[in-house]
């Protein structure tokens, strides 16, 4: 059941390999990249508790050293970056060595950035262990940390040399974490592949219940779409922004909920996608049925769909709109939205009347 998607960037091409049991065969995939049989692994501490033994047995024949990092977004800052870089230097990791990032999106971004700056760039392998990281953050080379001024404001584009997405590890996720990652999967159908969205409507429940073949198929199609977009626009000068469907709303909601457990990123993306389709429909860009269909699928999956599904109080529509203005994707003071002409047909625009956004938010909060 091994699937491979090639991210064919000139001079920086790499494979994303997807399937069950890849941890057990890690040496087979990673050894061809090595100049000497050793790797430095930086792992999320919780992921290490669950899966490090399996990875280490899969790396038999390769010398390994391991550093663990506390789980959670708080690790994605200067203190852990400094700790990782110092450790890699202590371990005498050289320019031609390979660093392994073993965990979810936080670890991928953090360790990828450490690899980008260490000795002006060493190669790294992503072994993503959350659904969100497998379908989105491990692919495409965005690395970085959070700043006092906001999330992901310090970073670099640094493509991995290989991504190993072992779909067996998804079994260890809580249902909530799995569904949050599924929010990003749905995003791909909504932004560029109506047939994939239709496939998700039919297969999403079985996939969430644990069907391995369906999980592999969903991760493969998501990664394929991401790779196509990244190959067209690696540094987000244009099309790559499509991957931010739902994110302008999501970032405001994350800020409003203090980046807390009240709303996981993928949950915010799902609610944001529903709001983006609502806005598109009100602007006459897509049919009125489209937002209902998006919401119906999210509901059928048991996901957060509307603003009312977010626990606790939210600020008013004006404050949320203000928070959207803090988004780093604002250009010349204008909010940039990803809107849609229909399911599978998204586009980027800065031409969105603030009043229309306010109305969507007010109705959602009512
Ligand atoms: N997660 C959005 C991107 O990689 O561009």
List keywords for this structure.
366 residues, alpha/beta, Rossmann fold, two-stranded antiparallel ribbon, 13 helices, binds glycine
SSE order, as H and E? EEHEHEHEHEHEEEHHHHHHHEEH
Structural class from helices and strands? alpha/beta
Task: Please work out how many helical segments DSSP would assign.
Answer: 13
Approximately how much beta-strand content do the residues carry? 15-25%
- Please give the CATH class of the largest domain: Mainly Alpha
Largest sheet: 7 strands, mixed
Return residue spans where pLDDT drops below 50 for at least 5 consecutive residues. Answer: none
The CATH superfamily of the largest domain turns out to be Dehydroquinate synthase-like - alpha domain
Oligomeric category:
single chain
Label the overall shape.
globular
**Structurally, how many domains make up the residues?**
2
> What is the end-to-end distance?
47 Å
How many individual β-strands? 11
Helix content: 40-55%
Summed over residues and divided by their number, the pLDDT gives a mean of 96
Give the radius of gyration: 20 Å
Main-sheet strand order equals: 1-2-9-6-5-3-4
The CATH architecture of the largest domain comes to Up-down Bundle
**Which fold name fills CATH's third level, the topology of the largest domain?**
Dehydroquinate synthase-like, alpha domain
User: Can you list the ligands bound to this structure?
Assistant: glycine
């Amino acid at each position: 059941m091994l699937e491979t998607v090639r991210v064919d960037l000139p001079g920086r091409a790499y494979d994303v390999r997807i399937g069950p049991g890849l941890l057990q065969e890690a040496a087979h995939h990673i050894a061809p990249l090595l100049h000497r049989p050793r790797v430095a692994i930086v792992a999320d501490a919780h992921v290490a508790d669950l899966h490090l033994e399996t990875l280490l047995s899969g790396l038999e024949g390769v010398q390994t050293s391991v550093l663990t990092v506390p789980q959670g977004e708080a690790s994605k800052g200067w203190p852990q970056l400094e700790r990782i870089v110092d450790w890699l230097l202590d371990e005498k990791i050289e320019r031609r060595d390979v660093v392994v990032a073993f965990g979810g999106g936080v670890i991928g971004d953090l360790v990828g950035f450490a690899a980008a700056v260490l000795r002006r760039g060493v190669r790294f392998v992503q072994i993503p262990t959350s659904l969100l990281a497998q379908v989105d953050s491990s692919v495409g080379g965005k690395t970085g940390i959070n700043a006092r001024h906001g999330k992901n404001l310090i970073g670099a584009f640094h493509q991995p040399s290989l991504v190993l997405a072992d779909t067996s590890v998804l079994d260890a996720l809580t249902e909530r974490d799995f569904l949050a990652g599924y929010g990003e999967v749905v995003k791909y159908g909504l932004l560029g592949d109506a047939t994939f969205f239709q496939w998700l409507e039919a297969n999403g429940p079985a996939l969430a219940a644990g069907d391995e073949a369906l999980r592999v198929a969903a991760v493969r199609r998501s990664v394929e779409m991401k790779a196509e977009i990244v190959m067209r626009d690696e540094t987000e000068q244009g099309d790559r922004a499509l991957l931010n469907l739902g994110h302008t709303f999501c970032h405001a909601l994350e800020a409003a909920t203090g980046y807390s457990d009240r709303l996981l990123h993928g949950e915010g993306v799902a609610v944001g996608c529903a709001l983006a389709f609502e806005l598109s429909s009100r602007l006459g860009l897509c049919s009125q049925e489209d937002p209902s269909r998006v919401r119906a699928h999210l509901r059928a999956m048991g996901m957060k769909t509307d603003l009312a599904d977010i626990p606790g109080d939210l600020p008013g529509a004006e404050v949320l709109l203000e928070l959207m203005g803090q988004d780093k994707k604002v250009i010349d003071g204008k909010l940039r939205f990803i809107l849609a002409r229909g399911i599978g047909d998204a586009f980027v625009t800065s031409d969105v009347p603030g009043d229309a956004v306010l109305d969507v938010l007010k109705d959602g909060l009512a």
